Amino acid sequence: MIHGDAHIGNIYLDAEGQPSLIDWQLVSHGPWALDVGYHIASALTVDDRRRSEVDLLHHYLDALGARGVAPPPWDDAWDEYRRGIVYGFYLWGITRYVAPPIIAELLHRLSTAACEHNSFAAIGV
């Protein structure tokens, strides 16, 4: 199961201070990397993503393993991550009812990540 719209605006801190997700209208069955790639590439500034994305993806994969889920091999995970970025780019490309400066910033973050990681080639485009 994936959230389907894992941008920073859909995350809040609950009463115990734990990150939680809201806005489950796009929940579906799908690959983990749609949420992870989309979230990392849209939630962080371009410079922060560049500095942190490899460590964050390693942390995610390690957390899977710690919970008894066999993580994919690194090269496969990285390719999936690259593809997930395109999903977020698509969603913000069709967004119409959010303030234009927010849309522009998230498209900038996602398109920069997609270009730097050759993400469109990773999905065969």
Provide structural commentary.
With 125 residues, the chain is mainly alpha-helical. It has one domain (29-122). 59% of the residues lie in helices and 5% in strands. It is built from five helices and two strands; from the N terminus they run ββααααα. The chain has helices at 32-43, 46-66, 74-93, 100-116, 119-122, and strands at residues 11-13, 19-21. A two-stranded antiparallel sheet has the order 1-2. Strand 1 (11-13) and strand 2 form a beta hairpin. Helix 1 runs antiparallel to helix 2.
Q: Name the beta content range.
A: under 5%
Count the beta strands.
2
Number of helix segments? 5
Order of helices and strands: EEHHHHH
Summarize the amount of helix as a percent range. Answer: 55-70%
Radius of gyration: 14 Å
The structural domain count equals 1
Q: Between the first and last Cα atoms, what is the distance in angstroms?
A: 26 Å
Q: Short summary of the structure?
A:
This protein has about 120 residues and is mainly alpha-helical.
